Amino acid sequence: MKNRGRIALASETAETAETVAAGGASAAAPKRSASANIAKFRELGLLAFIVLLSAGVQLRNPSFLTWENINDIATNTAILSILAVGMMLVIVTRGIDLSIGATLALSGMIAALTVKQYPGANPALALLIGVGIGLACGAVLGFLVSKVRILPIIATLGMMNVFRGLTFEASGGKWVSAHQMPDSFKAIATGKLLGVNHLILIAVVIYLVAYFFVNHTRTGRQVYAVGSNPESAAISGIRTGRILGLVYTVMGGLSGLAGVLWVSKFASAQGDTASGYELSVIAACVLGGVSIAGGSGKISGIVLGSVLLGILNNALPMIDVSPFWQNWIQGMIILVAVLVNALVKRGIDRNHLMRRRI
Amino acid sequence: MKKMWAFGLTAVLSISLLAGCGGGGNGNGKAASSPDDGGKASGSSPAGSAAAGDSGSGSSGGAKKFAIVFKNTGNPYGEKMMEGFKKAIEEKGGEAILKAPDQPTAEAQIQMIEELISQKVDSIAIAGNDPDALQPALKKAMNAGIKVLSLDSAVNAQSRLVHVNQADPERIGRTLIQGVSEMIGGEGEIAILSATSQATNQNTWIEWMKKELEDAKYSKIKLVKVAYGDDLRDKSVSETEALLKSYPNLKGIIAPTTVGIAAAGKVLTDKGLKGKVMLTGLGLPSEMAEYIESGVCPWMYLWNPIDVGYLAGYAAEALVGGELAGKTGEKFSAGTLGEKEVVADGDGTQIMLGDPFKFDSSNIAEWKAVY
């Protein structure tokens, strides 16, 4: 919430010099629209929604809230949530990255081919290779978006096809199967440390780092500044190009990491791995309150967004609804979240206008 | 300067994008052809240029052109099928054109069919992504004198002359139930993990499984649920986990789809349920080798995709050569597979490859390298 306030303030001061000082505004006692009040509680609302949903599912299927199932949800959601961190940074800068599914497939495939060729290799090497390829893919995108100034949606759509093509080319259209992967590689995703699955641990570490980066580093704050208002960010001395390049590279690196984890988890690498997965990641961000218009989004929000999607994916098969309704329910929930987001934003904007002295 | 750059790159990107979705045929056909002899095959199918003119005389002389359109690229199963098709065509001296779209959609296939019509091929064999949506395009092809047959995944009877079936759906359905019954000792709860809820193949097999279950000897076996993993890894894993939790007494899972059975094998392995929950179904030997060798899946079935393609190749030759019109009761010779007969299939006709092939620990080692 503190975060949101700061961003709002930043964009306000940037947008117009006549913005009224906070004190003056409170003296004028402006009517706050109801939806603006919700903004403060939006994450609480999401949390409440998750609790309600869980309770409902639990009523229908008592094996839902068991330790084993919660563990399964966390493990299955880890990869999605890792990608959501990168996607949030990209969306905050008013961008979007549609290529992450393809980047994930490419780095996963190359990592799988490597361990197939050298079964004795340390699994850490596979991770490094995956992340490296992801970083390279991301850097190319960053270059296209920041230096060449292609619209992110076009650049990433184009590169998505390029990366998919490379994946097919690298694998010759063949799959890498479980029996071709050494156990050490598969253990990346199945292994446990202190009883907690590696995937969950990796996701938690990434979230801690991201939280620190976003809230407590200068570069992290600059990401938001660039998203709130690129022109004024540039005027105030932020190298917007660099920030854009950075977020796409980070996104690529996380996709690369996710690719290795994916292949290790499912013990299979296909050319069409995670096809369309980018949409789930974007959905997780949107559910978590990240605004597609850029400038706002919080780590706690995307945690909840990912968890909600994870619960949906886990619970819908368990409540025994027909597959047609599964898609319908998932779509409706995303739609409602977006609707709330839009209403809240409208409320905030109206408030800003009301507080402005003419 | 910067603007020029931006403009240039945007232009290049958008062109490559257009080529990616629009031109479909050329690049994709190449990616789809089997890696071993792919160069040659794709080289001989320059979609654009072949449409020009001289090649249109396919029926009057020179090598006849036989096209095969699979569901999507990058599927080893489809590649084996196309390999078998190509082998059959080349044995008879024809020219094989191998094609498959990037995404498994009917729209992409329609576009490829249109291209093949203007290329004036003699025959199109298609593994349909949708039974009905392809009808207008395939009808147009037949009106242009092209012999249309489907293989693997059928299109409706109005849009084909004959269908080449991997194996008898009835035999598949019944064999799978017999297999799982043997594994669980004829008693207990079983579930099915299928592909999408609208997948033509899987639904037919499931129908036959249910019919087989009506037999009195399966009175102690209960089918508790049909789950749909949509042939996606993550979804198949979630569905399998949900089955295990919702039905703690589950004894067996039948997964008649390659992604589903491998995902289920992985879940059962990770959860240490080997021997407690039995797994069988239809899967790729390479994907399933790990789980068959470990005993999570005692055995599974599949037909030989090379033979499916091979049979379709000979059927296409026979259709173009006039030995076959797609009527019930006709017989033709299918190379090494011997003589095959056309049988009725609903309001259409089909040619059956035979019983599904069983893969178990005794033969999986030799097959996992094949496909």
Features:
heterodimer, A: 358 residues, ABC transporter involved in vitamin B12 uptake, BtuC, 15 helices, B: 371 residues, alpha/beta, Rossmann fold, eight-stranded mixed sheet, four-stranded parallel sheet, globular, transmembrane transporter activity (chain A), ABC transporter permease (chain A)
Short description:
The complex is a heterodimer of chains A (358) and B (371). Chain A has 358 residues and is an all-alpha fold.
Write the layout of secondary structure elements.
The complex is a heterodimer of chains A (358) and B (371).
Chain A: H1 2-15, H2 22-28, H3 34-60, H4 67-92, H5 100-117, H6 123-147, H7 152-171, H8 183-190, E1 192-193, E2 196-197, H9 198-216, H10 218-228, H11 230-235, H12 240-266, H13 277-287, H14 299-318, H15 323-355
Antiparallel strand pairs in A: 1-2
Helix pairs in contact in A: 3-14, 3-15, 4-9, 4-12, 4-13, 4-14, 5-6, 5-7, 5-12, 6-7, 6-12, 8-12, 9-10, 10-12, 13-14
Chain B: H1 2-21, H2 25-32, H3 38-43, H4 47-50, E1 65-69, H5 76-91, E2 95-99, H6 106-118, E3 123-126, H7 135-143, E4 147-151, E5 162-165, H8 169-184, E6 188-194, H9 200-213, E7 221-228, H10 233-246, E8 250-255, H11 258-270, E9 278-281, H12 285-294, E10 299-302, H13 305-321, E11 331-333, E12 339-345, E13 348-352, E14 357-360, H14 364-367
Shape type of chain A:
globular
CATH architecture descriptor name of chain A = Orthogonal Bundle
Mass-distribution shape of chain B: globular
Beta-strand fraction estimate of chain B: 15-25%
**Helical percentage of chain B:** 40-55%
- Gap between N and C termini of chain A: 28 Å
- Biggest pleated sheet of chain B: 8 strands, mixed
Number of strands of chain B: 14
Description of the molecule:
The complex is a heterodimer of chains A (358) and B (371). Chain A has helices spanning 2-15, 22-28, 34-60, 67-92, 100-117, 123-147, 152-171, 183-190, 198-216, 218-228, 230-235, 240-266, 277-287, 299-318, 323-355, and strands at residues 192-193, 196-197. By secondary structure, chain A is mainly α. Chain A has a two-stranded antiparallel sheet. In chain A, a hairpin with a 2-residue loop joins strand 1 and strand 2. In chain A, helix 5 packs parallel to helix 7 (152-171). The radius of gyration of chain A is 22 Å and the shape is globular. Residues 1-30 of chain A have low confidence and may be disordered. In chain B, strand 8 (250-255), helix 11 and strand 9 (278-281) form a beta-alpha-beta unit. The model of chain B is unreliable at 19-60 (pLDDT under 50). By secondary structure, chain B is α/β, with parallel strands linked by helices. An eight-stranded mixed β-sheet of chain B has the order 2-1-3-4-5-13-12-11, sandwiched between helices. The longest helix of chain B has 20 residues, at 2-21. Classes of the chains: A mainly alpha (358), B alpha/beta (371). Chains A and B meet through helix 4, helix 7 and helix 14 of A and helix 1, helix 2, strand 7, helix 10 and helix 11 of B.
